[in-house]
Amino acid sequence: MIAIVLVVHLFIAIALVGVVLVQRSEGGGLGIGGGTMGGLMTTRGSASLLTRVTAVLAACFMATSIVLAILSGATQEPRSVLDRPVPQAPAQPAEPRAPSVPLAN
After folding, report:
1. Which of 24, 31, 60, 90 fits a 20 to 30 Å CA distance from 100?
2. Helices (H), the chain
């Protein structure tokens, strides 16, 4: 499940970067899509469409980010020291062993 959401998340991120780069900036920037788009739409119409597409892709990106955060947190054990069980001391201390004598070969 996480792999599928991650792949969708990556495609949305790539599409979002592409749509942002196509938009005409006020400072000049790349402005790849700033023309008349071959008579398909007016400049104002394409700007409005690109703005809406950017907003939808950004919302989808945020949603998949939240879903990935929830899914990744659900599969891990708690990491807090307070959530771990307290280790129990052994009932009797271990008896010391006699020192070992090196054996000659």
Report:
1. 90
2. 2-22, 43-74
